[in-house]
Amino acid sequence: MDALYTEEERLIRNTMREFADAELAPNAARWDENEEFPWASVEAMKRMGLMGLTAKPEHGGSGASYAELAIAAEEVSRVCMTSSTTLLAHLSLGVSTIDRFADGGQAERFLPAACSGDKIVAWALSEPSSGSDAADMQTSAKRNGAGSYVLNGSKIFITNAEQSGLIVVFTSTDRAKGHRGTTAFVVESDAPGIEMRGMHGKLGIRGSGTAEIYFSDVEVPAGARLGEEGDGFRIAMTILDSSRVSLAAQSVGLAQGAFEAAARYVQQRETFGELLKERQAIQFMLADMATRTDAARLLTRRAAQLKDAGLSHNRESAMAKLYASEAAHFCVDKAVQIFGGYGFFRENPVERMYRDQRITEIYEGTSEVQRIVIARSLLKDYAAA
Ligand SMILES: Cc1cc2nc3c(=O)[nH]c(=O)nc-3n(C[C@H](O)[C@H](O)[C@H](O)COP(=O)(O)OP(=O)(O)OC[C@H]3O[C@@H](n4cnc5c(N)ncnc54)[C@H](O)[C@@H]3O)c2cc1C
């Protein structure tokens, strides 16, 4: 893996690994077990400058590349998926949307507190009746004279919502125009008329916050609109393309964590008078886990490098997210198998990894949606001239 990285990237990897092992790993099981929001992790990630990592320095960020973000996301996810979900929903969705699409005044107003992590940003696209089909939006924003809009509707499954200071919310300003009528706003989470209801009982990433958001006649100044009316769908799709790079990295980290746990366990577990590591069946599992993890890392790095070069990465980020999440699925499954009965119990981290993995094939576009994105893009290349 080392040969993949530049000297500077290796330094980031090593620093992030030490940080994650020292500050996140010791609490990961507790956050999961108690469904406890990882505030200590947020504080630690703030100190590390992670909350505004890829935002522009003039906006209070660190100006890191997506290749660097992928390394950081991998290391956090290797030990704590609750922490990486919290971080990535804030950074790759929330902060990135404002960093990229805010005008000068909006950037000045919203980004310093978001990049420092003092205000966590939630990103609200999904609705009860529209997840994969994000264009079919019910939440409305109606003009209230020239100076403001009034928002009504609800969002569901929103990461960090209850913990947030700001929400990037996607609304319909003109239902008749379909996705061309989607408009994005940055809303203060404590604005009158906003109500949150926490959603509990998740299978995995149990410490991360997930909530429904209700908007009842929420007045939002026109100055909080990102871009023009109708730009919202393009904004959401642009951000999902880049955010999927970081979610691919999340899966790579999880797969790597499962592999490392299994590779250590086989050194000490004996069956039939021999260590597990001597069994070819076990060696083959480890070889397949490492190969898929590496392939996923390479796809992720390619997508990150395209994004960093300002090139189209729609197909490549979908490929990376699809492949990496399925590689993680394979790796956590094999890790539990290698641990045998011990892998089936809470005190073993691979049990948590097994549950945490499942969301990677669902959020920010299910695996079916990634395949739709990839196929559409491929078929365009072969369309009759
Ligand atoms: C823990 C968690 C955190 C989340 N965080 C956020 C967040 O911060 N912000 C946010 O906006 N959203 C968030 N989501 C929502 C998430 O992105 C959606 O759940 C996801 O996009 C799927 O939408 P859905 O649940 O409505 O499923 P549906 O769209 O109803 O899909 C159901 C099934 O049908 C399949 N399917 C749908 N359409 C097609 C098709 N055309 N062809 C083939 N198969 C299809 C899907 O792949 C899936 O298997 C989160 C979800 C969870 C569970």
CATH topology of the largest domain: Butyryl-CoA Dehydrogenase, subunit A, domain 3
Kindly report the average pLDDT value.
97
Q: How many H/I helical runs? A: 10
Q: Helical amount among residues, as a percent range? A: 40-55%
Strand tally, please?
Answer: 10
Please give the domain count. Answer: 3
Q: What characteristic shape results from the CA principal axes? A: globular
Just name the CATH architecture of the largest domain: Up-down Bundle
Uncertain ranges: none
List the helices and strands and how they pair.
Elements: H1 7-33, H2 39-47, H3 66-79, H4 81-101, H5 104-116, E1 121-124, E2 140-144, E3 148-159, E4 166-172, E5 182-188, E6 194-198, E7 210-221, E8 225-226, H6 232-265, E9 270-271, E10 274-275, H7 280-308, H8 314-339, H9 349-357, H10 367-381
Parallel strand pairs: 1-4
Antiparallel strand pairs: 2-3, 3-7, 4-5, 5-8, 6-7, 9-10
Helix pairs in contact: 1-3, 3-4, 3-6, 4-5, 4-6, 6-7, 6-8, 6-9, 7-8, 8-9, 8-10
Flavin-adenine dinucleotide binds next to strand 1, strand 3 and helix 10.
